[in-house]
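Weekly puzzle thread! Below is a chain. First person to post its structure in token form gets bragging rights.
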Amino acid sequence: MARLSILLFSLGFLLIIGTTLSIVSFYLKFTFILIGSILVLISFLLIKMSIQNDLNNVNNVSARGKLGLKNKGLKVKVDFNKCEIITSNHILSKVESRSSLLYFYDSLFFSNDKRPKEILLIRLKFIVKISNKDVSFISEPFRMDVKNFEIYLFNYKKTFIYVNKNNYNDFFFDLDFLKKYAYYEKSLMS
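Winning reply:
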């Protein structure tokens, strides 16, 4: 699909450039420029669709991986009272996604009011004995207030970790109930 979109883009671009440089009637120029623009637009739509399909495939693979671990993996019961809460502060330089002109304006006239936003990332750490070895599992990070996080954990009391029997580094910490309360941040995993 990428080759087709590159071909359509090139053809449309060449059609537009060639038509503007040629000496033909206005209606013929207009027709060829319109056709070239449509080809360029179709190429962009194909690229967008291929990116969306790739993202959907990645999400399906990770969902199948979770489902496979839930069905065939080792199921470890997690008591939240025995979990350690790990917090880390991260500072964002931009509070909101706004245009650079607005940031410039804010820095000139409201410089004291704008401070970088501090975000607290929370993870859960749980240590359990599996086949006479202490294995620690650390969840993916959440953006949430610590007190609210503790309240949600107190209400839910327990969950499960699904572990690959052959590789303990391949696991799924089932904290899906927190997704509706917190911003689930996969990109900040480290």
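Puzzle host: Confirmed. Bonus trivia for everyone else. The radius of gyration is 26 Å.
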